Amino acid sequence: MVNGHIVKDGGILNADDMAPSLGVNSYREWIRRMTVDSRAARVMLDGIAIGYEPLGTPIIATVNHGRWVGICECGGAEIVTPNDPIFFCFSCYNLDNKYHVRPVAFPHEKEQAAISAVLMERDHKDMHWTPGETVEVLKGQNKVLREAKKSKKEKE
Ligand SMILES: [Zn+2]
Known about the structure:
Elements: H1 15-18, H2 27-35, H3 39-45, E1 59-60, E2 62-64, E3 67-71, E4 77-79, E5 86-87, E6 102-105, H4 109-119, H5 135-155
Parallel strand pairs: 1-6
Antiparallel strand pairs: 2-3, 3-4, 5-6
Helix pairs in contact: 4-5
Bound molecules: zinc ion (ZN).
Zinc ion (ZN) binds next to loops.
């Protein structure tokens, strides 16, 4: 744990990494537990069936504090996984998508690995990636971060 965030050594944390700590084996099972198996959600959803086949507009994955995250139009943010790129917002229950999970657009596998490698050089608090930022841009940011760290140390 760093500043209340679960940290993964050697890679970007995804929703499947979180599953064991929630007593399930996968992100998909977690969504099921939080909807079908949760009494509160059942009351809230009042019999509405959640669709588990992804439909609708993809959510674009970003990296926030070393985690793959999807941000809903309602403002809700959920950790997601490239292993099973679906998104379900526990704030709005994907109401505007008729309660169906949505697809998630991740960068290609090679790009994910490259992004991960560059972000792993940073302190956890600085591990962010926004779609459109190239690996070269991230490397440039790493340089700035390193220099800022160095000058901070020199002042101490
Ligand atoms: Zn939402």
